[in-house]
C-alpha cells in the first residue's frame, strides 16, 4: 500500500519515512497541517508500509517498526510500537507517555552563571534506537508570523532510526528546516569583551592584534557602545540602549568604517527588553510611527508580536545603526518567557531578527540564545555567561557535541569564560585551544580589569602559544567553510559525537568530551590542570580501529585501544586518520574568501579523498595508492574573475609532515611512491623531552632514558615500565612506547 496518512477517530498517523511517524490526537477531529515554530516541511518522499485495520484501532508496519493503536485516548496501553532492532533484551518497545533511559540528550537555553555542568534537554538520538520529538509550538501563517495554537492536542514524532544517527539528523533537518550556510567571516577569530572601550582604545587594540600577526574576523562591541551610566534615573536601567555613547565614540560612523577597513565585520550588543525610551536619539521618529505620547515620554514597549513595532524597530532603530556600518546583531535577551501571542520572546527575536539580517548581506547571522528545537534555523547560538573554572571548560566539549543531537551545531561560547572564577594561565590556554577546535571561536570576558583574554595578558610561553593557535584557526577556515557547506547541503555537522561514526562501539558513548571535527579530524581537548610532577596535561582517548596520527607532530597510534594521552601546555591532542587530507590557508592574516595559497596536509597509510567547497567552485583532491590528484570543478554561472583566482592559486603538498618543495597551479597529478611514509617523530627525542621537563630525581631520569633507549623491543619496553613507581609517569612513557612500536 502506498499512501501516507491514516485517520482513526480522533487520531491521525502520518508515515513520513520507514523510521519516522507523526502521531496526532485531536478531540475535534481537526488536524494541523500548517507550519509550526518547530516543523517546516512534512513532505517526504512516498514510502511503502502496510496497514492492518482493527475494529477500533489500526496497526502500521514499516521495515523499521510496527505501531499499534487500539483506539480511544492515547495511553501506554492503547498506543505503542515495536522497533525492529534490539539493543537490549527488554527495551525494544516504545509505549506512549513512558520515559526511557538511553536518550543521548540535546542542549539547553543558556549556560548563564553555570559553573561546571547543567541539565540538558532531550535530543532525537537514543541508544535504545527510538525517541519522541514533541511539537507543542505555535502554528505559523504562510508569511511565517504567529497564527496561534495548533488544532492538535497531541502532536508527536516517533523517531525509530536505531543507531543510524546521521540519517536521523538528516530527516530531522528535512522536517524542521535546513541549517543556513554561514558567511565565511563567522568562522574566524572573534574579539569580544564587556568593557567600556573608547574609539581610540578599541582601534589601538585592533592595531596591536595586527602588529602581533594575530588574525581577527569579527569585532564585537559589547553594551557600552550605547549610553549606560548617564541615562536619567526616571527611565530606569541603562541596560537597554540604542544611542551611541558620544563621550567614548564621538564619530560612530568613522569608527565603524575604520574597523571595516581592517577587514572586520561588526556586531553590537543589544539588550532589547526595555524597549525604546524617550532619551533615545530615535525616540521622536518611533513615537510618531507608533502614536506614542511624547509629552508623557511614553516608551515603545518591546513587542515583537506587533508588526508595526517590528517595522519601527528594524527601520527606525536598527536601520540607522546598520547604515553606519553594523553588520549583524548580538541579541542578549534574558527577560521574560512568554509574549502576548504565547510565543517565547526569544524565539520571536531570533526569528524576525535573522530574517531582517538577510537584507544586509546573504547568509547573514545573528548571535543569540537557544530557543528550543528548530533554533538551528537562526544561527549563531550564544551560550551565555559561564563562570571561569576548569569545571566549566570540562563541560563545554560535551555540551557542544551533544547539541548536534537536536541539530544545533553552531554554538558560540565565551571562550575563556565570562566572569567570577580565578586566574589560571593554563586554564585560559586550554580553553582557547578548545575554542580553535570548536564551532565558533569568540574570545570573551567580563568587565573585570583582570579577566581580559588578549594573549599578551599572560606569560610569554602562553602568549606565544595562544597567538599560534589563533593563527591556526584562520589557517583552518577553508576546512571549516567546507564543513559549513556540508551542514547546510547534507545535514552533516561540523561537530559529531564519536557514536555517529561508531554507533555499535560502547567506547564511543563513554568518551563524552572526544569528538569529530569535520570529516578528517578527531579532537580530545585537555580540560583539567596539568600533572605538576610531569608538567603535562592528560586526557584518556579512545582510538577507533585504524591508524591515527597526531595532527601536529605525526605521532602514530594503532587504533582499537583506550590510552592516556599526555601533552605539554602548548600542545593539544588532535588526530587525523590515515588517508586524511586537510586544506590550510598559507596566509592566515589575509582573510581572503578565496585564499591565494593552499597547503594540503596528507596523512599516509590509506587512501583518502576530500572536496574543498567554496562559493561557486569545488576543489577535489584524492589519494589512491600513493597517487595524488587535484581537479577543479566550477558552477556554470561563476564569474571569470573568481574562476581565474581559483585556477591560478598555488598548492603546496605536505605529505607525512614533509613539505614537497614544488608549487602546483590548477589541476595536477602527483606520484608519491618515492616519498617516506614516516613522520620525523622519534621515540628517543620525545622520551628525552618528557623526562627533561618532569620534576623528578636526576638519577632516575638518566636511568630511565638510558634503559629505554637501549631496549628496541616493544614488549620488553612495556615490561620495563612496570618498574616505575609513579603511575602517571609510567602511563606517560607507555604512550611513547606504544607510538614508537
Summarize, please.
With 741 residues, the chain is an alpha+beta fold. It is built from 16 helices and 37 strands.
What does this protein look like?
By secondary structure, this protein is α+β, with helices and mostly antiparallel strands. It has 16 helices and 37 strands. The longest helix has 18 residues, at 307-324. 45% of the residues are buried.
Feature tags:
741 residues; 6-stranded parallel β-sheet; 6-stranded antiparallel β-sheet; 16 helices; globular
Number of E-type strands: 37
Tell me the strand percentage band.
15-25%
Rg computed from alpha carbons, rounded to a whole number of angstroms: 28 Å
Give the CA-based shape. globular
**Poorly predicted ranges (pLDDT <50, ≥5 residues)?**
none
What characterizes the major β-sheet? 6 strands, parallel
Sequence of strands across the biggest β-sheet: 17-16-15-14-13-20
Helix content range: 25-40%
Q: What's the rounded overall pLDDT mean?
A: 95
The number of helices is: 16
Structural class from helices and strands? alpha+beta
Give the termini distance in whole angstroms.
Answer: 59 Å
Question: How is the secondary structure organized here?
Answer:
Blueprint: E1 5-8, E2 11-17, E3 20-25, E4 50-53, E5 58-61, E6 65-69, E7 79-83, E8 93-95, E9 131-134, E10 139-140, E11 146-148, E12 154-159, H1 165-176, E13 189-191, H2 199-211, E14 218-221, H3 252-261, E15 265-270, H4 283-290, H5 307-324, E16 328-331, H6 345-357, E17 367-368, E18 381-382, H7 390-403, E19 411-412, H8 425-436, E20 441-443, H9 460-475, H10 477-490, E21 495-497, H11 507-510, E22 515-517, E23 521-523, E24 537-543, E25 547-550, E26 556-558, E27 561-567, E28 574-577, E29 581-585, E30 597-602, E31 608-614, E32 617-624, E33 627-634, H12 640-648, E34 650-655, E35 658-659, E36 664-665, E37 668-671, H13 683-693, H14 698-710, H15 714-721, H16 727-739
Parallel strand pairs: 13-14, 13-20, 14-15, 15-16, 16-17, 18-19, 30-34
Antiparallel strand pairs: 1-2, 2-3, 3-12, 4-5, 5-6, 6-7, 7-8, 9-12, 10-11, 21-22, 22-23, 23-28, 24-27, 25-26, 25-28, 29-30, 31-32, 32-33, 33-37, 34-35, 34-36
